[in-house]
Predict the structure.
Amino acid sequence: MLALVKERYADFGPTLACEKLREQHDVVVSVETLRTWMSSEGLWRTRMQRRKPAQSPRRRRSCLGELVQIDGSDHEWFEGRAPRCTLLVYVDDATSRLMELRFVRSESTFEYFAATERYVRAHGKPCAFYSDKAGVFRVNAKDARAGDGYTQLDALCTS
């Protein structure tokens, strides 16, 4: 039975493999028994075994202004007393100090340009900005026809 699973259903989970054995080969075995056999042969790993190891945290920078984390948070900030908006936040990595806060209509390249200009005028240019993978920071289209994969904001932050 296990040879049949290896030959035809090696990439199936135990439940589907059990169904196929019953439907296609008139072989009846319990799902748990098949799961045990598949696990012992390395054909099946539990969800816990498949889980990727946690990524170790990035070490914080040691000096103010060395790295500034930037992000936007869309939220009902004013609880219905004003339109929904996004808060752009610039946080110093070394000190966790809030360096720039700005409420904007939406998280867009132009809003980040304006907030970054305010940040640079007030604090100078940091060594680096760190951001998530939101669309304003990278080209998400897999079939982009031209360019180097950087957005205008990403180019500004890395220059």
The mean pLDDT is 87. The domain at 67-158 is CATH 3.30.420.10 (Nucleotidyltransferase; domain 5). The two ends are 61 Å apart (CA to CA).
